[in-house]
Design brief:
The complex is a heterodimer. Chain A is mostly helical. Helices cover 74% and strands 1% of the residues of chain A. Chain A is globular, with a radius of gyration of 24 Å. Chain B is globular and about 60 Å long. The chains are: A mainly alpha, B alpha/beta. Chains A and B meet through helix 4 and helix 13 of A and helix 3, strand 6 and helix 17 of B.
Chain lengths: 293, 361
């Protein structure tokens, strides 16, 4: 009985929060747009029967996605932005996590607090704050002009650079926390052993610390990459009109074209693309759990 | 037990007060009302007013078509209203509950019938034009004293735009406004629904696209007022609000609005009640409150948009009723055009064209 519950709870969770919404979106993606409320057909009616309902569904909208280069370019654009952001998040997050793990024991709760503290402010407000920092007359430009480093204000807001800054800033804690968790668990005597055996500090870092924190790095990268891929808020606030990301295309299908079926098809394809990294992430977590047992 | 009883009474009291406290949820455009009017409405009627804002017709339309938005009063523009009426999104107004309807201006009512036959589903809130907001100082500095600040040549001629790019240009992120403007610039029918004609707008827009800093439908108010940008293609009242904010800030920024001489889009924002509004009774009370001449005058004096309320005109301030940018004179009025909704297939082409212009893809 206990075993059954143990399995049933996560599956029920998946069913209600993932599978059911996905099936609804899938159904809409196989429908046709219409000027009605809600704006697609067919709606399911018992009187017409199950067969009549299914016979009206088709894959037209998915075929449509292949007919226009906009869609695959937007998927690629998202992929590029998500990948580059993940690399930068790792490059910045790893040293921070490393520093936290090496800090004296009594400092660590405070440092941890500092990483988590920004979450107490709404994500949206923090992104808006970046608009104030990065704009042409913003704090950054004013400071740089005042200090004489530049003579002309830098144009950062409304470019891809601003999107990278926004994503790296927002997702940094998702990288720091798993890496810190991995480094924190590491046995310090292993480094001492490596140094005793003639490793320089740098080689010890490469040969011992990095491999031992591998799971944290992998977890952090997925936690950043997966949500960054479908990101909509950051590119729409900080990005320019040249920033082509699938989240924005999805929004446009939904709001400007009022074409829910094509919007749903875009969402289904996005999910299929993300399933590969999500599965890899799952396997990594599982392997880690097994290793610890 | 006594404690339980008190809790129970408290809960019951709360329940009844929730059930009986009348409320009305209004969804209006951002920066589009004198906020004192909101508390005035609550004081006069005892109805709790929940006021939300949006900055794009598309967002509103999606909520209307999805249904169950929970709003009692919404404010779509004419062409969007027409499509939403067809989709069955609104309920007919109960004119017996709108005692102030006699204040409406027949000139505007006649024009809005194009979207809402017999004006059965909506009342006019405000109307205006789409045109050119310029930071006079910066634009003349860049283009010289004979800068064409009243002509579409300012924003659709790549030579001008290449120079203006350094001080910043914003366009509305609204294809249903920008494409007719580009067609007007070419001398075509701005309200054309022919894909071949619409396609001509792409060349005009793409040619100046590299010089447009942002396509956005509300940020330009602040950006113009702060001096972050020097030209915005936007809505009349928003640009006049930017002018006022700059005056208040006393930052040396001088903003002017001009309806383009090649023709300007005239639009109408209509108040309507969704078919599934939870409180249609309170919604009618809100509409009647807005129809009151004094209230409507206060709103126009605050946001610098013309309204469809004839009785409010004596109460309008001189810089509103006397400004041809807000209340156009006969000559300008002839220069204004209106548009009608695109059919779905054309709409897809329009959105695609817009994406292509904006992203280059």
């Amino acid at each position: 009985m206990r075993r059954f519950l143990l399995i049933a709870v996560p599956y029920a969770w998946l069913l209600v929060l993932f599978l059911v919404p996905f099936l609804i979106v899938l159904k809409i993606s196989l429908s046709d747009a219409a000027l009605a409320r809600p704006p697609y057909t067919p709606h399911f009616e018992w009187a017409e029967g199950v067969w009549a309902f299914f016979s009206q569904l088709d894959f037209e909208n998915f075929v449509f996605l292949t007919s226009d280069s906009l869609y695959w370019k937007a998927y690629l654009g998202s992929l590029q932005i998500a990948l580059i952001s993940t690399v930068f998040t790792l490059l910045i997050g790893y040293p921070i996590a490393y520093g936290m793990a090496r800090a004296p024991e009594e400092w660590r709760p405070t440092l941890m607090m500092l990483v988590i503290l920004p979450f107490w402010t709404s994500f949206l407000i923090r992104v808006y704050a970046w608009m104030g920092i990065l704009s042409k007359e913003g704090f950054l430009n004013q400071f740089l002009l005042w200090s004489g480093i530049i003579n002309e204000p830098l144009v950062i807001l409304n470019t891809n650079t601003a999107v990278y800054i926004g994503i790296v800033y927002t997702y940094l804690p998702f990288m720091i926390l798993p890496v810190y968790a991995a480094l924190d668990r590491m046995d310090g005597s292993l480094i001492e052993a490596a140094e005793d055996l003639g490793c320089s500090r740098l080689t010890a870092f490469w040969l011992v610390t990095i491999p031992l924190s591998r799971n944290g790095i992998v977890a952090g990268c997925f936690l950043v990459f997966i949500p960054a891929m479908g990101e909509f808020v950051i590119p729409s606030l900080l990005g320019g009109s040249r920033t082509l990301m699938i989240g924005k295309v999805l929004w446009e299908e939904f709001f400007s074209n009022r074409d829910w079926p094509v919007a749903s098809a875009v969402a289904v394809v996005l999910l299929l693309i993300l399933i590969v990294p999500i599965m890899l992430f799952q396997r990594n977590q599982q392997k880690q759990a097994e290793a610890e047992q | 037990m006594k404690l339980h009883l008190t809790t129970l009474t408290a809960v019951l009291a709360l329940g009844t007060s929730v059930a009986f406290a009348e409320e009305v949820r209004v969804y209006n455009w951002s920066d589009y009302i004198d906020e004192d009017l909101l508390s005035k409405f609550e004081d006069e009627t005892g109805i709790t007013l929940i006021y939300d804002v949006f900055d794009s017709n598309e967002v509103l339309e999606t909520k209307m078509l999805a249904g169950g938005s929970g709003y009692d009063v919404v404010v779509p523009s004419g062409t969007f209203l027409q499509r939403q009426i067809t989709a069955g999104a609104f309920q007919e107004l109960d004119m017996s509950k709108l005692s102030n309807a006699g204040n409406l201006w027949d000139v505007i009512a006649a024009r809005t019938e194009q979207y809402d036959p017999d004006n059965a589903y909506s009342i006019n809130y405000m109307w205006g034009t789409t045109g050119l907001g310029v930071n006079v100082g910066k634009v003349t500095e860049v283009l010289g004293d004979d800068a064409p600040i009243g002509s579409l040549d300012l924003v659709f001629n790549p030579d001008n735009m290449a120079k203006l790019a350094e001080c910043g240009v914003h366009f509305l992120d609204a294809p249903s406004e920008m494409i007719p403007a580009a067609l007007a610039y070419l001398g075509e029918d701005p309200d054309s629904h022919k894909p071949k004609v619409i396609a001509k707008a792409e060349a005009v827009l793409s040619a100046v696209r590299p010089y447009v800093q942002k396509f956005h439908s509300s940020e330009y108010i602040n950006a113009l007022a702060n001096g972050d940008i020097c030209v915005a293609f936007g809505w009349s009242g928003d640009i006049l609000q930017a002018r006022d904010r700059a005056d208040e800030a006393d930052n040396g920024v001088e903003i002017a609005y001009n309806a383009p001489s090649e023709g300007a889009l005239m639009w109408f924002d209509q108040m309507a009640i969704p078919v599934d509004a939870p409180n249609p009774e309170a919604a009618h009370k809100f509409l009647n409150f807005i129809l009151d001449a004094e209230n409507m005058a206060a709103a126009s004096n605050y946001v610098y948009y013309a309204n469809g309320n004839l009785a409010s005109q004596p109460m309008l301030e001189e810089d509103v009723i006397g400004d041809p940018a807000i209340y156009p004179n006969e000559a300008t009025l002839e220069n204004l055009y209106t548009t009608s909704p695109y059919p779905p297939k054309v709409q897809r082409g329009v959105t695609r064209l817009w994406t292509k212009v904006k992203s280059g893809t």
